[in-house]
Specification:
The complex is a heterodimer of chains A (275) and B (313).
Chain A lengths: L8 H22 L4 H17 L15 E4 L5 H10 L5 H5 L30 H14 L6 E6 L6 H12 L5 E7 L8 H4 L5 H7 L3 E6 L3 H13 L5 E6 L22 H11 L1
Parallel strand pairs in A: 1-2, 2-3, 3-5, 4-5
Helix pairs in contact in A: 1-2, 1-3, 1-10, 2-3, 2-9, 5-6
Chain B lengths: L6 E2 L1 H11 L6 E5 L3 H4 L2 H6 L4 E3 L4 H13 L3 E7 H4 L3 H9 L6 E5 L17 H6 L5 E3 L4 H10 L7 E4 L5 E2 L14 E4 L4 E5 L3 H14 L4 E5 L2 E3 L3 H10 L3 E8 L4 H12 L4 E6 L9 H7 L4 H13 L2
Parallel strand pairs in B: 2-3, 2-4, 4-5, 5-7, 6-7, 10-11, 10-13, 13-14
Antiparallel strand pairs in B: 1-8, 6-12, 9-11
Helix pairs in contact in B: 1-8, 4-6, 9-13
Bound molecules: thiamine diphosphate and magnesium ion.
The site of thiamine diphosphate has 21 residues of chain A, from helix 2.
């Protein structure tokens, strides 16, 4: 889909629902992985992939594609579910998640999976990588856009703010960040671990243009993504207020499901809720 | 920026090497507020559009470089050797793991750096970068070889780390000398012992070999400018022809050139090796020459090591 196409919000919602099904099935099969942060991120990712990301599913290496840098690489099930729904990965690929030799590695990896633009797993690095991609695009006079998804806990890494500072100085007008503001990190809620406060305000103080959005309201997400793409005054950040585990009742706002897979019974309930 | 004919600092060669490959539009130079010191400043003067200043923020620089490399550029990033180490995990996970052709230059390596003192004297960089899969690790000995090896980075289809030195040392090469990444350069031939050296110790090794020849100990001297991949073919040949080795480096004896040699020799031969290098110690402020004497990185150190190695044959 390209800019200006009529967007069918309910179709995007259906795609997000199918992605959620993939996420719980994949993590259940692997008996490990990170469902919580995948479920919180998925609506944002569907809004971006489904409306504006220029990406050729038959040629994922197309060099003038837009880039999607999944910096919070543990939410790999979200990435794989999108690639599955778009036809880049098949059912066997995603169900092999985390097994020996699988194209679906534990954390997203550009060498293992077609359609993945960044090898993540170590938090705090993706925004710098995205900035490198953004300035390379400018040097090549290419209009490709770079989207970077960050976790909110991830913004505790100092390197994020090194990159935020550099992005504004270098006028990275083709760089867009979306922060999955689910207020939970690995061990617990952020306000227990180390609350970082107003993330949008911090980006703003580094010269970014920022908007907040309900990260599970598809029509608002479509609007804010469209707005971000129309902004050309500098780098843009979207803070998406989300719920970790969104869409599966017992995972919602539950820090335990950051890095724990559903068991058989939990899978049954989850699939029922998502049907 | 031309060095006097009597000597050259490898960092100057790096600066000139960048200019030699500037014709390739993929080359992008990245700086972390030390361009005047690492000598990338000359590239900046001529090609400001392909030079990116990233401030005093090395971790960001490494991943920025990775992003550029993933977009078809050949980024070359420099800072002091010691400050590349702050971003070690970034280099490991962000650059080497995906195998991106990012070239890192750490200047001011070794205790030869001198008066700045121990905080600036990286004595472990060669060791740590050598442990990373896919990394090429290079340490030239003078400006001429540094220029040539920098120019060859263009053809290297993976990540690399090059250490350069701050101070001028006697030149080992002439303009137009042939040398190649991955192949040790034999600078002197002798059948009793092989001194395998790198960086500022190459010149010291040559003088030591001259001294030893007066004792009828005839030494081969190799400039092993590429520490990884190590030139095993040459080492195997010298193991047969000389039967004893000394390693000489301005670096810890743990894990650097001596470490690399000992790993190979001990698992493949019974040929003795003695190491000259920093003995698990930090440096301090002082003139290069004073520090090299103090820490045994000198001609006497190499000569003693040579006699020990020969007595173990
Ligand atoms: C540098 C680094 N430190 C620690 C970890 C371990 N880790 C994996 S996920 C995570 C929490 C991430 O929280 P957040 O960014 O909020 O992600 P989300 O809530 O979206 O899952 C941690 C600490 C890591 N992957 N990288
Ligand atoms: Mg979070």
């Amino acid at each position: 889909m390209g800019d200006g196409t009529e967007v069918d919000v309910s179709e995007l919602e259906q795609m997000a629902r199918r992605c959620r099904v993939d996420i719980v099935k994949m993590t259940h099969a692997a008996k490990s992985g990170h469902p919580g942060g995948s479920l919180s991120a998925i609506d944002c990712m569907v809004a971006i992939y489904g409306t504006c990301l220029r990406f050729d599913t038959s040629n994922p290496d197309w060099e003038d594609r837009d880039r999607f840098i999944m910096s919070k690489g543990h939410a790999s099930p979200a990435m794989y579910s999108i690639l599955h729904q778009m036809g880049v990965l098949d059912e066997d690929d995603i169900m092999g998640f985390r097994t020996l030799g699988s194209v679906c590695q534990g954390h997203v990896d550009m060498n293992w999976t077609k359609g993945v633009d960044f090898s993540a797993g170590s938090l705090g690095m993706g925004l710098s990588f995205g900035l490198g991609c953004a300035l390379a695009a400018k040097m090549d006079s290419s209009d490709r856009r770079i989207w970077v998804m960050l976790g909110d806990g991830e913004t505790q890494e100092g390197q994020i703010w090194e990159a935020a500072m550099a992005a504004n100085y270098h006028n990275a007008t083709n760089l867009r960040v979306i922060v999955d503001r689910n207020r939970i990190q690995n061990d617990d809620f952020m306000d227990v671990q180390m609350e970082i406060g107003d993330i949008g305000e911090k980006f703003r103080s580094f010269g970014w243009t920022v908007k907040e959005v309900d990260g599970h309201d598809m029509s608002s997400l479509v609007d804010v993504v469209d707005w971000a793409n129309s902004e050309d005054g500098g780098p843009v950040a979207i803070v998406a207020n989300t719920v970790k585990g969104n869409g599966v009742s017992f995972m919602e706002n539950n820090p335990s499901f950051h890095g724990m897979a559903p068991d058989d019974e939990e899978l049954r309930i989850a699939l029922e809720e998502l049907s | 920026m031309s060095a006097p004919s009597s000597g050259g600092a490898s960092r100057d060669g790096y600066g000139r090497g960048l200019l030699r490959i500037a014709h390739d539009p993929r080359v992008v130079v990245l700086e972390a507020d030390l361009g005047k010191s690492t000598k990338s400043c000359h590239f900046r003067d001529e090609y400001p559009d392909r030079t990116v200043s990233l401030g005093i923020a090395e971790q960001n620089m490494m991943l920025f470089a990775a992003g550029m490399a993933s977009s078809g550029k050949i980024p070359i990033a420099s800072t002091f050797a010691i400050f590349t180490e702050r971003a070690f995990e970034q280099v490991r996970n962000g650059i080497a793991r995906p195998g991106l052709p990012v070239h890192i230059c750490g200047s001011h390596g070794g205790i030869h750096t001198g008066t700045d003192g121990s905080s600036a004297q990286s004595i472990e960089d060669l060791a740590i970068y050598r442990t990373i899969p896919k990394m090429t690790v290079i340490h030239p000995c003078d400006d001429i070889s540094a220029e040539e090896l920098t120019a060859q980075l263009l053809d290297l289809n993976g990540p690399s780390y090059m250490r350069t030195a701050r101070n001028k040392v006697p030149r080992m090469y002439e303009d137009g000398s042939k040398l190649k990444i991955g192949s040790g350069s034999v600078l002197r031939e002798g059948g009793d012992l092989a001194i395998i050296s790198c960086g500022v110790m190459v010149g010291v090794a040559i003088s030591a070999a001259e001294t030893l020849s007066r004792e009828s100990i005839n030494c081969t001297v190799v400039d092993m400018h590429t520490i990884k991949p190590l030139d095993i073919e040459l080492i195997a040949k010298l193991s047969d022809s000389c039967g004893a080795f000394v390693s000489a480096e301005d670096h810890s004896v743990i894990g650097g050139l001596g470490g690399a040699l000992s790993e190979w020799l001990s698992t493949n031969t019974s040929t003795p090796l003695e190491m000259v290098g920093v003995r698990d110690n930090f440096g301090q402020s002082g003139a290069s020459s004073e520090l090299m004497e103090l820490m045994g990185l000198n001609e006497a150190g190499i000569c003693e090591a040579a006699r020990r190695a020969i007595s173990r044959k």
